[in-house]
Amino acid sequence: MLLLYTPHITPRLRYIVDFFSKELFDEPIILTSDKEDYALHPGPRLNYSDAEMDESEFFLRSTPLLQETGIHTRKIECFELNFHKAFFPTEGDFPFDVFAASFYLLSRYEEYLPGTPDEYGRFDHTRSLAWREGFLDIPLVNIWLQDLRKALAKKYPSLVFRHPSFKFIPTYDIDVAYSYLYKGWKRNLGGLLKDLSKGEWSKFKGRINVLRGRQPDPYDAYEWLDSLHLYCRLRAYYFFLAAARQKGVDRNISPGSPGLQELVRYHAAGYRVGVHPSWHSGDKEFALKEEIEWMECMTEKEVTRSRQHFIRFTLPKTYRLLIRYGIQQDFSMGYGSINGFRASVASSFYWYDLEKEEKTSLRLFPFCFMDANSFYEQHDTPTQAMSELMHYYHLIRKVGGMMVTIWHNTFLGNDPQFADWKKLYEVFLKDEVYWDA
What we know:
Structural class: alpha/beta
Number of helices: 15
Strand order of the largest sheet: 9-8-7-15-14
């Protein structure tokens, strides 16, 4: 058991020590502010303060962040350490304040600071420290954890560590369940007229054939995914858009449609299912409540998982609303404009509400790759996307982390423009048949 001494046990310190405990040990790190108890402890000891006590301890000189309250603009200067970045340099048995630096990244401290949002009103990834310093594409916190594990093991060879194993979680956003089916005669008639006006005869004929049952809907990837998951022994997560109002980017089938209800019930029986809160719900709280209720009606289960449509969320507002309406796990921690590690971590963690200075019950599952980012934002070819996927896979496997990817059924159905992307995904999964689901 590792005993950690600090003069003042703050909510921030307790939060980040809990995270480190989960990642490094099977037993929790014990906190104390009593110098006498600390001095008498016979086992491994970590002194997190501004003064060293004796040579037998592991000394990490603290920096101010975890003793503060409130949110303040600060200048972060990174330096190179073992071929990767670090910040908050300090003295002792470790070259930087790994607790404070990790807290800064996990709490998304920088997202509370004033700044210009992106075109969709989201935190702009170009404002992030990870983007500016070039570490957006690596799980930096997990790398720091490995470095700390090595330093502690050198000081205390008998200290027993937990060695987390790699985990892969495939997730899917069902923004538009079907291209033509179950959309009603008005929407399909409008689509047919639009195809005719543009001279898109193949789309016109395809729509007619799908509606007559002569060929599958272009976005129907569900049976194919079932067989792929079975082959790879994976259990996936599906997030369904259940917006009552079909407008703007919220263009799925109405949740009142028997087609969507049947699809959701089918997946709820064999997979983990969650709500995909609409763009509209970001402006109207009643819409979020309504969409969760629709999902609970369709699944006949309590809905406790979510991922924001278009990755639209702001801190702390969005996460507080999710907690209010019973969401326990959220999969939105990533960018809707670029792939990478938004919180610089490949592990799940609990959201810390910086304004209230408290650890919450909302567990976050960060993603590192989304097909739409590669295709629409980064303008990657399938070959480039595969290279990026494998980059994340090898890095996360090396640190024993958790890899979460997002794909859309629209990319994995029979739409000709995404044919190579469907092949890419199949190759990626089948080449790694020993996934740890």
